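Okay, can you check this protein?
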Amino acid sequence: MDPRWWSFEGMHGGWVAGAALTAVRDAFAGVHRPVRSLTTHYLTPVGTGPLRFSGTAPATGRRTATCLFTGHQDGEPIVLGSALFGPARGGPAHTGLTAPEVPGPDDCVPVDLPAELALFARQLEIRPATADLPLAGGPRAVLVAWVRFRDDRPVDAAAVATLADVLPPALYARWRTPRPVPTAEMTVHFTDALDDGPAHGWSLVRIRTDHAGGGWALDDSAVWSAEGRLLAAARQARVVRDPVTPQTAAGTMNS
């Protein structure tokens, strides 16, 4: 696990999901089958030590493969999930989740997320595309931003899984005080936009909270290419914890 992808209490969840996808695809699915969905359950925060995956492919047919996986650290299971792979096939096309109309990345101002809350953000360039900002106490639980990797990596399925979880929890747009909102489960549904190869450069990412209550939140996110093609849509179940001070957050990151 690359310590540069640390996020508040553990490794960045989207980045861990991307690592799981890479491991499972290489072991079971084969590169000829694009991924269609990826579900990851986070049993405990992922540390910076080696993460070892085991898995099975109990349903592998001529056209699809369903793979189950578990990630272990220090001999203990800490993530588990499933991935569905399948090639493209003939069928009707429909675009229902279109990219919001926002200024382009060149017309948006970069923002730096606090390192004590999101160390991983140093690996990214993030440019909010609307007036909604983290910890600004706004009226809406939604964030929209242009995002690109500073190392200019191709935006393949693993990178898209990272981007689906890259913005702060959407409730941060309404709050002024940070608090941990770790992901308990995330499912990413990938579109056929990646079937012909990865995207490149900027991606437009939107996250919104559809519901929060009882210490839980339901977040919905989407990732579009710079050309406006939908790459993936995701849903997350998140735990909403008590607020912490920046000093507490820093102590958590260093522990």
Remarks:
- The chain has three helices and twelve strands.
